[in-house]
């Protein structure tokens, strides 16, 4: 699973981490029918985009209703998260990514 883009949208590293997981969940939904993300994959993709902050990575998942789950069980993008994913894709397509 990968994200093909110049960068992940977001105003802060925290936003970019959440958006990475949300976009991965959307990608997995298209591939398998379930909007899930294995945490190790999410961390790896965050590292690829330079938004992995070992100290604060887990703080990106506090609050919000776009993701549910845990590091151990993995993450699921919720219906509000999928709606938000659609806006991210639109935003990324307008910016030329």
Counting DSSP H or I runs of 4 or more residues, the number of helices is 3
Share of residues in strands: 5-15%
CATH topology: Arc Repressor Mutant, subunit A
Uncertain ranges:
none
Task: Give the spatial strand order of the biggest sheet.
Answer: 1-3-2
- Per CATH, the class reads Mainly Alpha
Largest sheet, strands/sense/barrel = 3 strands, antiparallel
* DSSP, total strands: 3
Mean pLDDT figure:
94
Helix-and-strand structural type: mainly alpha
Element pattern in H and E: HEHEEH
End-to-end distance: 17 Å
| Helix proportion | 40-55%
What general form does the structure show? Answer: globular
Count of individual domains: 1
CATH architecture: Orthogonal Bundle
Q: Evaluate the radius of gyration.
A: 12 Å
Short description:
The chain is mostly helical. The chain has a single domain, classed as Arc Repressor Mutant, subunit A. The protein has three helices and three strands, in the order αβαββα.
């Amino acid at each position: 699973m990968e994200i093909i883009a110049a960068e992940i949208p977001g105003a802060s590293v925290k936003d970019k981490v959440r958006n990475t997981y949300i976009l991965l969940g959307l990608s997995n939904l298209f591939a398998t029918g379930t909007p899930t993300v294995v945490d190790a994959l999410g961390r790896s993709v965050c590292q690829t985009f330079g938004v992995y902050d070992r100290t604060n990575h887990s703080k990106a998942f506090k609050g919000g209703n776009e993701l549910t789950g845990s590091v151990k069980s993995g993450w699921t993008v919720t219906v509000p998260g999928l709606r938000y994913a659609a806006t991210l894709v639109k935003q990324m397509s307008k910016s030329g990514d």
